[in-house]
Amino acid sequence: MPSPSEEASGEHPAGHEPAPPPRQHRWSLHLALFIATGFTTTLAGIRLAGEVPAEFGGEGILTQILSAVFFYRELLYVMDEPSAALAGLAFSVPLLGVFLTHEMGHFVVARLRGVDASLPYFIPVPFALGTLGAVIGMRAPSNDRGALVAIGAAGPLVGFVVAFVVLLIGFSLSEIKTAAEIAALASDAGVVVEGDSLSYALARWLVHGTLPPGDDVWIHNTAYAGWFGMYLTWFNLLPFSQFDGGHISYALVGRHARALSIGVLGTLLVLFAITFNPLWVSLCVVLVLLSRFIGLSHPPINDDRPMRPLHKLIAFACALVFVATFVPNPLHPHPVSEQRGSERAIAPRVPADEALPHADLTLDKPRPRGLASERDSSDSPLPKRRDPRAGRPEATP
Ligand SMILES: [Zn+2]
Predict the structure, then answer these.
(1) In the chain, at which end, N or C, are there fewer CB atoms within 10 A of the end residue's CB?
(2) Cα angle vertex 134, ends 191, 42, to 5°?
(3) pTM, rounded to two decimals
(4) Number of domains present in the structure of the chain
């Protein structure tokens, strides 16, 4: 997650203890977790690309159960058809690229500031995105608010830049579909709209310019990775507890940061009331659960010095990135998917008949198969997405 629970400073709130010996890096553990996460995120990418026929591996009850949540069919399929891994890698490589640069941003700046930080621990999971992100162990500086800002901001800022580059590449690999094609897909199989943030819309415009009304980009797996990279950047910048944004807000407003943490929870519920998007409630529940472990308040720091202009500028840059990566209505069904025949065909870019993970938080269930999945979709002008030969050739890099 790139680091809500960066173990931050729970270990040393006071700073009067003798300095512990420098941390020994556990290289083999870091590497093993990274490789395992590469494996699970590649399976997630195969699922997102719709590479695997729905019936692959049989319809046994165990297969169905294992495949509903976990990447069981994808695993069977890629063992049978190794080339399917390419579509998965088009997702996992850029996604882990964003996560790795995010964490290494924290790591490098922490080390430059003399803070003892560990290398990232990636967290593989066999469902959703294939990972819960990564965390680094760190003993936060106990008397330097500037260092807190610099270390907290380094991850999201560098991760944002990489995610933006990933988006530009991903959009250039994506194809345009016309309004009619999109409406047919939405009506036939269901389509989920990923939702725009300012930075996401900017990247799309830089690559594709202004599209005719109703036309839209059918996003490639790499663009999908960029979308999640942006979304997780925003998530980490929430001014909450010991998130990256929580470190920064504590450095700025001190103990009042607790009120910001509570404000975040309230804002998520307001967003739900406006959009009826259940993702906001899921996020709120996750934050409440996390706060049981890391608290709502930031550990205290004894630093009465005024903050340097440079650190204020860095905090301002983070605020801009936070605004630019905010998606008001993420991962919602295309209107035509809910209301066939509707004229309101807008922005469908993500296939709905995949398990759609919610950011790094994995609270969701895989979506049911597309609304029309019981229907024979051979009347569709478009290829059935679950045919690995006919479906989405753009999914391979
Ligand atoms: Zn971070």
Answers:
(1) C
(2) 45
(3) 0.80
(4) 1
